[in-house]
Amino acid sequence: MKRRNATRLLASLAGLSLAPRLAAQPAPTPAPPLRVGPARAITSIAEAARRVRDGDTVEIDAGTYRGDVAIAVWQRDRLTLRAVGGRVRLLADGAAAEGKAIWVVRGGQVGVEGFDFEGTRVPSRNGAGIRFEAGQLSVRHCRFIDNEMGLLTNNDPRAELAVEFSEFAHNQRPDGHNHQLYAGTIGRLAVADSHFHHGTIGHLLKSRAAVNLIRDNRLTDEAGGRSSYELEFPNGGVAVVVGNLIQQGAQTENPTMISYGAEGYRWPVNVLALANNTLVDERPEGGRFLSVWSGEVTVAEVGNRLMRHGREIDDPTLLRRQADERATRQPSGKPAPQN
Asked: What is the DSSP letter of 140?
């Protein structure tokens, strides 16, 4: 495992911005927004998705939309989808776009703001609030509650996802698994100012992205939560984790809070940077704050606060030592257990 001056490394990574890297586009004359609501000409979100054109804005009146009225597949470019007049609650009620999610997004640049995605169940047991398959997606002020998977992406390395001011909770399938947010092998994931809580066996946030910026979030089991990892980067990549509150609850079965590289490194650059986070371990027998798996990895950490059972740990080198203890894999390729 490579060592590098933490301050210098973090400074070099500070230029990573939250917003997706959008391609330059000409500024066309905006069309009037498509308005959706019970008293509008368009009453179904699915109908709006069929009518929409590149560059359109869709405004959806506040209220609750259920089943086939709520589900949609968005395939156009430069779309803005927003709730107006209050929150919009989307209840799956047994329906799912393409058998995947309440909304499937595979257009170009798409912005989503002000929606609650709830209750998706599908035969594959990966029913998501949003299934993101291609393009650049920005999600702001949304909630993903009681789905089988909160937000799930495909594995397009050109895709980029940004999430801000959003909440993910109680997303699990009947066997008590799945993750609150699961990013596949996409190009870039940025998550900020969001709250992840009450996972069950699955992870609060799992990402296989090449580049990850995880900033100023609350990733916490809380009372009754039983998440596995609170934060996992199973294939490495660049992961910048700054200013987060990360808490492992008393009922977790997995002793590790943050895991990096457990399923093998697939990206050409593997860097983990941890700065100014507060890590709280409430596991009765004590847990592990960090596991970094064997491979060509650079780890930097600075300014992190470690808490256990309500007290700050007076050991400034503990996180560094855990980072330097290379975890190994069993012959099957699965991670070997760590103390």
From this structure: E
